[in-house]
Amino acid sequence: MKPITEYQDYRKYMRDYYEERKRSSLFSWREFSRLAGFTSPNYLQLVCEGKSRVSKNGINGVADAMELVGADRDYFCAMVHFGDAKNDEKKMQAFNEMQKIAKENRLRVVDGEAFKYFESWVNPVVRELAPIMPGAKPLELARQCYPVVSAADVRYALDFMLHAGFLKKIGEDTYEQTEKVVTGSSEAIPLALRSMNRQMSKFATSAIDDVPPESRHITGVTLGMSENTYQWLVQKLEALRQQVVAMAAKEKEYDKVYRLNLQLFPLTKRKEA
Fold first, then answer.
1. Which residues, 6+ apart, have CB-to-CB distance to 15 below 8 Å?
2. CA 146/CA 167 separation, integer angstroms
3. Distance, CA of 7 to CA of 66 (rounded, Å)
4. Which long-range contacts (CB under 8 A, 24 or more apart) does 46-53 make?
5. HSE-CB of 211 using CA atoms within 13 angstroms
6. For residues 28 and 46, what is the distance between their CA atoms, to the nearest angstrom?
7. How many CB atoms lie within 10 A of CB 257?
8. Which pLDDT belongs to residue 248?
């Protein structure tokens, strides 16, 4: 099996463990559940299918059944808390605990760097800004940012992106991007993206008053639509987003960093049939 820190979904880890054991023995869901201390023979199968979850009291039993010890056991317990967290705050706490456990034991969390990248708006802005300001110190970069950001925050962002491989240094205070587009695919990335979108939505609100109309384009429309129209419009917006990303990847010369928000959300509840 892959190292446990290459997982963020405890259900996928449990299923992979089950499949690995089954390939080399007569291992069954009944046996798996029994070893974990559950009387229901298909309980863990239901968990892995997303139809149930591991109870707080059952986490250690499942860890025992998979013979997890030390850092792997701690990581699995944190992963269960991450997967079953009821809100973003608790989910973030659990994911940070997963990263902490991995770091303390010199293990790698897949997409951990991407999660951290998307967690703060400063990272993508500095990643776009630094290459067009060769030789600029962190304070100079900070003064170009809107809203205001400290030189220390810019320095931290630069150090992180160099370490994570999002930027590379090609001279004194001179950087270039290693890739034009940054993406993440793990279960944790949507959590960081929600944090990013909250930050950027607040900036969009501030821009209405703080940015001259000729330097921004903010518009909207309120309309009624069916579910089919909604799905059609979502596809169109996603196609537009992909076109913008492709255009940005080809951009050779630019002098300003922009943020494009695509927002479509309900203003009423669904009418009862």
1. 48
2. 21
3. 15
4. 47/11, 47/14, 48/11, 48/14, 48/15, 48/18, 49/11, 50/11, 53/83, 53/84
5. 16
6. 13
7. 15
8. 84
Taking the C-alpha atoms of residue 117 and residue 162, their distance in angstroms, rounded to an integer, is 12
Strands 167-171 and 174-177: antiparallel
Q: Could you give the CA distance from residue 81 to residue 84 in angstroms, rounded to a whole number? A: 5
Q: What letters, b where the CB count within 10 A reaches 16 and e where it falls short, cover 15-24?
A: bbbbeebeee
pLDDT tens digits for range 160-184: 999 888 899 999 999 999 877 776 5
Report pLDDT digits (tens) over 56-100: 889 999 999 999 999 999 999 999 999 999 999 899 899 989 989
Three-class DSSP labels, the chain: CCCHHHCCCHHHHHHHHHHHHHHHCCCCHHHHHHHCCCCCCCHHHHHHCCCCCCCHHHHHHHHHHCCCCHHHHHHHHHHHHHHHCCCHHHHHHHHHHHHHHHHHCCCCCCCHHHHHHHHCCHHHHHHHHHHHCCCCCHHHHHHHCCCCCCHHHHHHHHHHHHHHCCEEEEECCEEEECCCCCCCCCCCHHHHHHHHHHHHHHHHHHHHHHCCHHHCCCCCCCCCCCHHHHHHHHHHHHHHHHHHHHHHHHCCCCCCCCCCCCCCCCCCCCCCC
Lowest-confidence region among 105-119, 136-150, 155-169:
105-119
Tokens, residue 239 = 């196609």
Asked whether 31 and 21 are in contact (CB, 8 A), the reply is no
